Amino acid sequence: MNFPSERVLRIAICVIAAIGIGVATYIFIADSTAGAPTCLAGGGGCETVAKSSYSHIAGINIAIFGIIGWILILATVFFANDAARLGGFLVSLGGFGFSIYLTYLEIWKIEAICQWCVANAVLMTIAFILNTTRLLGYVGTDEEGTPGGASQPIAEDG
Question: Taking the model in full, what pTM does it have?
Fold first, then answer.
């Protein structure tokens, strides 16, 4: 299977993470100052979601968890090793799973949709796919893409 180069994947993850940081930061700032993010498409879904009991965990706005997750994902793109690949995968997996849970809450419990939350969930889904591709495509390679971290090819016997 042909994967995009790890460099391309890292750049794509970087861009998605930067946008994700922006979205999560906007949600946090809007919630802290205006009471809720502004729904660009109109309606009151963002306000309904922001004022629900599900918008905070132990008194902490869930957007803070999003900001932290996005920063961690962004940090992994600066390294081309298995620890960074696995870290990016695990954080994006957790974010993806949490996004599914939050979307469930919006639809079935809160009965309102916040477009900013949906945007964040879509970005996290993309980040999860990119990080999964990076992990599967480049696990066991070093910064130069050589197998097993060897700097030179292994000579064949005989």
Answer: 0.88
Provide the 10 A C-beta neighbour count for residue 129: 14
Q: pLDDT tens across 82-119, in order?
A: 999 999 999 999 999 999 999 999 999 999 999 999 99
Output the CA–CA distances (angstroms, integers) from residue 57 to 26, 71, 108, in the order listed. Answer: 18, 19, 19
CA 56 to each of CA 30, 32, 65, 75, 133: distance values in angstroms, whole numbers, following the listed order = 14, 12, 10, 25, 32
By C-alpha distance, which of 82, 90, 100 is closest to 143?
Answer: 82
What is d(CA 27, CA 123) in angstroms, rounded to the nearest whole number?
Answer: 14
Record: fold of 6-138 = de novo design (two linked rop proteins) (1.20.1440)
| CA-CA-CA-CA dihedral for 83, 99, 48, 27, to nearest 10 | 30
List the beta strands (DSSP E) in 1-158: 56-57, 60-61
Rounded Cα gap, residues 29 and 36, in angstroms: 9
- Tokens coding 73: 């994902």
Q: Within a 13 Å sphere around the CA of 60, how many CA atoms are in the beta-carbon half?
A: 9
Nearest to 72, CA basis, from 56, 58, 62, 83: 83
